[in-house]
Amino acid sequence: MNAILLPHCDERSRKKRLQSREYAVFEFDVSMILLAVVACGLGGILKGATGAGAPIIGVPVLAALVDVQFAVAVYIVPNLATNVWQIWQFRSDLKDRAFLLLFAGMAIIGGLFGTYLLVGLPSDVLMLAMALVVLFYVLFRIFNPQWTLSKPMALRLAGPAGFIGGVLQGSTGLSAPASLTFLNAVRLPRGQFIATISLFFCTLSLAQFAGLLSYGVLGTEKLVLGLIATLATLAFMPVGDWLARQLSREVFDRLILGLLLVLALKTLADVFL
User: Fold this and answer.
1) ∠ CA(272), CA(261), CA(85), 5° rounding?
2) Would you list the DSSP string of 70-123?
3) DSSP string spanning 26-71?
4) How far from each other are the two terminal CA atoms of the chain, in whole angstroms?
5) Considering the domain boundaries, does residue 140 fall inside one?
6) Do 48 and 196 touch, CB atoms closer than 8 A?
7) Would residue 21 count as lying in a domain?
8) Which residues have a Cβ under 8 Å from the Cβ of 144 and sit 6 or more positions away?
9) Which one, 62, 101, 180, 216, has the greatest CB density within 10 A?
10) Contact 175/166 with Cβ under 8 angstroms?
11) How far apart are CA 180 and CA 193, in angstroms?
12) Number of domains present in the structure of the chain
C-alpha cells in the first residue's frame, strides 16, 4: 500500500494534505449527528425491506449533503456491522465456494484500487461518478427487469463483477450497479443471495477500512459518526421490514428508484451549476 503514491505527491505530504482539509461540516456537533442518523436510517429502511442495499440510500444522501469522501468513510462501520450480522444469520447458505472466492476475492483488489481513486481524484469528479453510477443502476433496473445469467456464465463473470463492484465501492461507496445487478441476474434463492452479498460487502469493507486508514481519510470523528450511523441503520431496519409487508414489492421498488433518481439529479446539479 505504501508504494502507491498520488500524482506529484509523496506519502507524507499526501497524508498531511488529507488531514489538513478543513470541512466545516466535520465539526462534531448535533447537525452532523442528525445528518448521519437520517441518511443511514433511510439506508436501514431499504436493507430491512430488501435484505441488501443500505448504501444505495445512505451513501448518496450523505454525498449529496457533504461529499463522497465523507459518505464513504462514515458508511464503513455500518457496512461492516450489518453485513457481519447477516453473514452469521445466513451462514448455512454460504455455498459454491469457487463462486464466493472469485466474487469476494476480486472485490478486495477492486476496493483497494477504488480507494486510491477516492483519495486522488478531485471532489467534483467523484460526485459526477456517484451520480452516473446511480443513474446507471436506475436505468438498468427499468429496462432490464428480467435479465438472467446461467450458472456457468455467472461463474466466469464472478471475478470481473467482483472487481468492478470493488472499484465502485472504493471510489464512490456504491457497488450496486455491479454487485447487486449481477447477483439479481443470477437469480439466487433469497438466503443464498443475502449470504453472498453480505460476504461481498463485509470482505470489501475490511479492505476499504484498511485503505482509508492508510490514506489518512478515516479519522476519529468519522469513526464515531459511523458508530452512530450503525445504530441508526439497525434501528430502522425493522421499519423497512414493516413497510415491505404493507406495500407490494413492485411499488416499494419504484419508490426507491424514484428517490435514487432525485438524488442523482441533485448531485449532477451541484456539480455543473
Assistant:
1) 115
2) HHHHHTHHHHHHHHHHHHHHTGGG---HHHHHHHHHHHHHHHHHHHHHHHHS-H
3) GS-SHHHHHHHHHHHHHHHHHHHHHSS-HHHHHHHHHHHHS-HHHH
4) 37
5) yes
6) no
7) no
8) none
9) 62
10) yes
11) 9
12) 1
- Each residue's pLDDT, cut to its tens digit, for the chain (273 residues) gives 333 334 444 555 545 544 444 444 445 567 766 776 777 788 888 787 776 767 777 777 777 777 777 888 888 888 888 888 888 878 898 988 899 999 999 998 988 888 788 777 776 777 788 788 888 888 887 887 776 788 899 999 999 999 998 888 778 777 777 787 788 788 888 788 878 988 998 888 888 788 788 877 788 888 888 888 888 888 888 888 787 778 776 776 777 778 778 778 877 887 787
List the grid coordinates of 233: 441503520
| Interatomic CA distance for residues 133 and 177, integer angstroms | 7
pTM to 2 decimals? 0.69
Q: Distance between CA 113 and CA 128 in Å, rounded?
A: 18
Q: Could you give the CA distance from residue 31 to residue 16 in angstroms, rounded to a whole number?
A: 27
- Please report whether residue 175 resides in a domain: yes
Instruction: Report the C-alpha gap between 264 and 19 in whole angstroms.
Output: 28
Q: Count Cβ atoms within 10 A of the Cβ of residue 259 and give its class: 0-12 exposed, 13-18 middle, 19 or more buried.
A: middle
The residue written with cell numbers 447458505 in the block is 93
Identity of residue 193: F
- What single DSSP character describes residue 135? H
Task: Give the structural domain span for 221.
Answer: 28-272
